[in-house]
């Protein structure tokens, strides 16, 4: 989303940018915490979060206005021994998830064990699995990471080279924008409300991509809550007439003159899982109703930014 906005502002062709010009998703992951806990310098953001709401990340970025380049800190490079971050092969994804699950479990066990030493981790999870950046000061990253008082700080110490917060490795994004959210706080919406808002934002000038936070899998739902939120970017939509009333019941709105059985929508999304995922999933075109339903129609499900002069 940030790369798309940056290309729009600078009239750049995003497809031709190299890693020195692309914003790092791993660097941005540090902004998932609440901004009041951090400062205005990029180096102040010293935790890497498992996830975070799009609205929180965009609001947090306004404090620094700059963020690291992919060439300096790259999840794809960290996971290069396991197919990289942009690989959608189910078996590879499963193996990658296991690496992170094992790492978190090891940190939790180490943290609770006064007699344990952090360097035992170096012979267990991660040493052979992760392509870690060089140590910043000759001290093994595992020693520094497992002495931290939170898992987010441990990930930061393990994966994030301090040099990436130096001015020469930062990409200017600016602070001159407003973060927009829908639905507003403490309100819920409906499928019709959300698809109408998506159409409005994507057809306005200038067009802005939309971040959407949703529950990625049914198994993560616990009542009205979700234990595994995921975010993607909506970059396009298309309307079509459904072929039968049975199909229209799945996700249509009121039938119209040109769509007697009702209408439905597809959304084009850009997923952080990379080009292989896009290729395997119809270039990112998915059913709008299924995606919007997975938000639970909760507040701030949609987030985008608008220019401020």
* Largest sheet geometry: 6 strands, antiparallel
Ranges where pLDDT stays below 50 over 5 or more residues in a row are none
Secondary-structure element order, as H and E?
Answer: HHHEHHHHEEHEEEEHEHEHE
Q: What is the subunit organization of this protein?
A: single chain
Number of domains: 2
Helix content: 25-40%
Q: What number is the mean pLDDT? A: 82
Shape: globular
Strand content: 15-25%
Q: Which class do the helix and strand fractions yield?
A: alpha+beta
How do the strands of the widest beta sheet line up side by side? 3-10-4-7-8-9
What's the short version?
It is built from eleven helices and ten strands. The chain has helices spanning 2-10, 25-28, 54-64, 75-78, 90-112, 141-145, 151-159, 191-203, 245-251, 275-280, 288-293; strands at residues 66-68, 170-172, 177-182, 210-215, 221-222, 225-226, 229-241, 263-270, 285-287, 302-307.
């Amino acid at each position: 989303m940030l790369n798309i906005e940056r290309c729009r502002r600078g009239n750049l062709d995003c497809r031709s940018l190299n890693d020195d010009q692309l914003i790092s998703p791993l660097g941005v992951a540090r902004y998932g915490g609440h901004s009041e806990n951090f400062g205005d310098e990029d180096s102040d953001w010293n935790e890497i979060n498992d996830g975070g709401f799009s609205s929180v990340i965009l609001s947090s970025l306004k404090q620094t206005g700059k963020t690291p380049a992919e060439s300096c800190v790259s999840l794809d490079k960290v996971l290069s021994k396991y197919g990289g971050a942009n690989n959608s092969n189910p078996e590879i994804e499963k193996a990658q998830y296991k690496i992170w699950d094992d790492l978190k479990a090891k940190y939790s066990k180490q943290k609770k064990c006064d007699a344990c030493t952090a360097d035992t981790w170096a012979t267990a999870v991660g040493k052979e699995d992760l392509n870690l950046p060089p140590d910043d000061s000759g001290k093994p990253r595992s020693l520094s990471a497992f002495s931290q008082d939170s898992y987010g700080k441990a990930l930061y110490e393990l994966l994030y080279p301090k040099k990436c917060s130096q001015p020469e490795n930062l990409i200017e994004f600016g602070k001159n924008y407003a973060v927009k959210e829908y639905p507003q706080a403490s309100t819920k919406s409906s499928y019709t409300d959300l698809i109408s808002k998506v159409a409005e934002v994507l057809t306005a000038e200038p067009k802005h991509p939309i971040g959407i936070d949703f529950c990625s899998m049914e198994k993560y739902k616990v009542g009205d809550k979700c234990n595994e939120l995921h975010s993607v970017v909506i970059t396009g939509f298309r309307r079509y007439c459904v072929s039968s009333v049975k199909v229209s019941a799945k996700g249509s709105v009121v039938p119209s003159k040109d769509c007697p059985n009702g209408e439905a929508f597809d959304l084009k999304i850009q997923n952080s899982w990379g080009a292989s995922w896009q290729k395997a999933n119809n270039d990112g075109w998915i059913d709008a109703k299924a995606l919007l339903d997975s938000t639970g129609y909760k507040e701030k499900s949609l987030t985008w930014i608008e220019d401020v002069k």
